[in-house]
Amino acid sequence: MKKILFLIVATILAGQAWAADDYFKVGKLHYKITGQNTVQLIGSNTYKELVSVVIPETVKKYTVVGIADDAFKYCTKLKSVSIPISVTSIGNEAFYYCGNLTSVSFAEGSHLTSIGDNAFDKCGALKTILLPGSVTSIGNNAFHECYDLTLTFAESSQLASIGNNAFCYCSNLVSVAIPEGVRNIGGSAFEHCGNLKSVTIPNAVSEISERTFYQCSKLESVSIPNSITKIGPYAFYGCENLTEVNIPNSVREIESFAFSECDEIQTVNIPSSVVKIGENAFKSCYSLKEVKIPASVKTIGDYAFTKCNCLKNIYCEVDYNRPSGWSPWWCDKEEKVKWGYEENSETVNNEKTSSAKDFFGEEPVRYYDFSAVCSSGQTLYYKYTYNSSTVRICRPMWYPNLVGEFKNMVIAKGQKEI
Fold this sequence. Notes:
- The protein is mainly beta.
- Helix content is 8%, strand content 24%.
- It folds into 3 domains: 23-159, Alpha-Beta Horseshoe (Leucine-rich repeat, LRR (right-handed beta-alpha superhelix)); 167-341, Leucine-rich repeat, LRR (right-handed beta-alpha superhelix) (Alpha-Beta Horseshoe), CATH 3.80.10.10; 356-412, no CATH class.
- Strands 1, 2, 3, 5, 6, 8, 10, 12, 14 and 16 form a 10-stranded mixed beta sheet that branches. A 5-stranded parallel beta sheet has the order 18-20-22-24-26, with no helix packed on it.
- Strand 1 and strand 2 form a beta hairpin.
- The longest helix has 20 residues, at 2-21.
């Protein structure tokens, strides 16, 4: 029995000795052995006084391949870090809250592939970063609240994903050309980037996620590629300097508040691929003057086009009948709705004939825009189309409950009943 206990104790002690041998210190930095020839730089309470760190490529007989989670967390005196070519990963919260960190440099030919969640979160003084081309993923909140950051991607960038809130509150960003290989851009990735003026979204991205460009108040232009099928909730909310939005013919869904409070947008062309427009999608687009809604749109949510103070015309391909999937409160300017818009409408001598006001003495509402007497003496009634040089013939049976009123208006003016 004693022999067995001795063996157990010996085994435990041997394990502890082996564990202790996994860690060592060289200079001011601490390391953990991760493989036969590799180590990871790990954290230590002794780092709190560090001002500048140059991480070596090799230490003893080992290659330094990573910076561990929390390694320099709360090192508020740290100002500069130099990362060698050998490091392939930067762990979660590795430099979290290093408020005075201004410079992070990567060795030429860097092998870095991943930047972990919150890796440089709240490094408010961090300025210029050239991300190595080898980086394939940027974690959630990786550069969150890096207010002074100027970001550059290497020309050979292999970046594939950008995490949620990755550059949220990076208020010094002005222009971002996201690398072509990026397939996923997380929610709120560029939220509150208050000086961002232009951004290019690559063709590999299929969705603009929730709040991606939320409150990017100086954003003037954005290139939305034909790969996008969905524009998420609040995606461009509060982009008050965005003047024009070209929605490609690949988009099927425009979610709630997607373009709400984009004050400077004047025109919106919604392609025939769109089947859903969410609630409040274009609410409070104060400068919006004109909207064209194709027949493909089956659902429009509450208040989608309300509080658009300058809205003059809403052209709908649907013929004189609000689809059941459209909220009764989808717009607050129903008198501006032009039902029955079609791209290829009939022309009448390539010009508009006498105005409806001249004929009836007042502008008719919703029934038709003007009349013309054809060669047979029959009076025909027309509505203007989206193209100002074309019109379409209206028939009163499109409003069965108004047929009687329609005929009485005609007879009262001494015209032939039709």
